[in-house]
Specification:
Elements lengths: L1 H73 L5 H9 L10 H12 L2 H7 L3 H4 L6 H14 L3 E5 L5 H13 L4 E6 L10 H11 L6 E5 L9 H5 L8 H8 L2 E6 L5 H14 E10 L5 H12 L1 H5 L2 H4 E6 L6 E6 L7 E7 L10 E4 L4 E4 L5 E4 L8 E5 L6 E4 L8 E7 L5
Parallel strand pairs: 1-2, 1-4, 2-3, 4-5, 8-14
Antiparallel strand pairs: 5-7, 6-7, 8-11, 9-10, 9-12, 12-13
Helix pairs in contact: 2-12, 3-6, 3-7, 6-7, 11-12
Bound molecules: S-adenosylmethionine.
The site of S-adenosylmethionine has 24 residues, from α7 and β2.
């Protein structure tokens, strides 16, 4: 009975068991296929992780290299010339700025708010190359206390330093004028910055104290961008300065190359009055500017012709970019008399004997008719010229050198 019951029960359960087995089979198949699928996906994920790890490593290396470049750009370049200029500077030209100088800087910078908004440019980016903070205040203090009558600026840009100088000139009340020289090439924002300087001068009613010259001061030597415009814009400095007469102040912030800085300095120093000052910007931040100024002071040619005797120099080192000022102490004199001796028909009286007896000077006239005397000569001093077949000439020199180069021509008359 028991066996029979068991048999009946097995018969009754058989279909159910078969169904369960069938489902187990299909579950096993699905599990196997899921396993294969998950395996494949895991391989894919691992592969992607590998390639992400590789990309991350290469990005890390790239960022590292770029950071090195940025680091090199932001850390100050070596500037041994600045260190030397600082060591040898006197403390005679710059003075600490007062609150009124900082206030003038704030007032003028604030006036640009409207312009920056109109053109949609960021202040920091736009004024990156302009004079800043303590350097700007010291420049203002120097103009405020020196009260120059005729000032010259190299590198106007959007006019910030020019407006500072012009505002100090207006406050001084002496009718001082600043002439700014700039080639007016477009800035990378595609704005002509000097156009903004002009707008601002009118807006701040400083235009009576500010004039603009379009052109290079001396030569465009350093900035690649400027060199591209070199031929299409005139060099204005030499002619404009000759037309203006002596200047008693100059601020230089233009071509920052060694050669360009030297050209600017050599031109400006020729037009600088005794007691006048030339200020250079960026002497701490631009080794090239410092290099040129250092060479001027130490170049053996300038040194022996009296650079340190004719110029005092001072630095302002507390600001971001660093300033250096030269003050002219005296005028370099190069007295030179050129005498031209001619005989009949304007022919050079070669081999005639020329004497300046009061100066104990005797010389033979050269084949070109010239004799040079390197020294001071007064118009009243005697001049004797003798040549066989001609009357001896004996008269006053007729011209005074007074530190400069002068010329005189004399003619011999054939003896009767
Ligand atoms: C650094 S920005 C002057 C910034 C300005 N001083 C200020 O503080 O706002 C330099 C300017 O010098 C001008 N420049 C470059 N080489 C020059 C040269 N040889 N003569 C005159 N200006 C020059 C450029 O056109 C530019 O506007």
């Amino acid at each position: 009975m028991k066996e029979r019951l068991k048999h009946l029960a097995q018969r009754a359960m058989r279909p159910g068991l078969a169904a369960i087995e069938g489902r187990l089979d299909s579950l096993a198949k699905r599990t196997a296929s899921l396993e294969a699928d998950i395996g494949a996906r895991l391989d894919g994920v691992l592969g992607r992780l590998d390639s992400l790890a590789k990309r991350t490593a290469s990005l890390e290396a790239d960022i590292g290299t770029r950071l090195d470049v940025i680091q090199a750009l932001v850390s100050p370049p070596p500037n041994p010339w600045w260190d030397d200029l600082k060591r040898s500077a006197g403390q005679t030209i710059f003075q600490a700025p007062a609150e009124e100088d900082f206030a003038a800087c704030r007032r003028i910078m604030a006036a640009y708010d409207r312009v920056l908004e109109d053109y949609g440019v960021q202040r920091e980016e736009f004024f990156a190359g302009s004079i800043k903070d303590a350097d700007a205040a010291v420049l203002h203090a120097l103009v405020r206390t020196r009260r120059p009558r005729l000032a010259w600026q190299v590198g106007t840009f959007a006019g910030y330093s020019a407006l500072l100088i012009a505002s100090a000139l207006r406050d001084a009340g002496d009718g001082g004028i600043l002439v700014c020289c700039d080639p007016e090439v477009p800035h990378r924002t595609y704005i002509n910055p000097v156009g903004i300087a002009r707008e601002m001068a009118a807006e701040l009613r400083l235009d009576a104290h500010l004039r603009f010259e379009r052109g290079w001061n001396a030569l465009p030597m350093g900035d690649n961008f400027s060199v591209r415009f070199a031929g299409s814009i005139p060099v204005r400095g030499p002619d404009a300065l000759r037309e203006l007469g002596e200047i008693d102040f100059a601020f230089v912030d233009g071509d920052h190359s060694v050669a360009g800085t030297m050209c600017d300095l050599m031109l400006l120093q020729q037009h600088l009055a005794v007691g006048g000052v030339i200020v250079f910007h960026d002497v701490k931040s631009w080794p090239t500017v410092a290099h040129a100024l250092h060479d001027f002071l130490n170049d053996i040619y300038f040194y022996y012709s009296g650079t340190r005797q004719w110029f005092a120099h001072d630095v302002f080192a507390d600001g971001i970019d660093g300033l250096l000022a030269f003050e002219r102490l005296g005028v370099v004199r190069n007295p030179l008399l050129r005498l031209t001796v001619l005989s009949d028909g304007g022919v050079p009286a070669a081999k005639a004997e020329l004497t300046l007896p009061e100066l104990s000077f005797v010389a033979r006239v050269g084949g070109d008719g010239h004799v040079f005397y390197f020294g001071e000569v007064d118009a009243g001093q005697r001049l004797r010229v003798e040549l066989s077949g001609f009357e001896t000439l004996d008269e006053a020199v007729g011209v005074s050198t007074a530190g400069d180069y002068v010329e005189r021509t004399v003619r011999l008359r054939r003896s009767a």
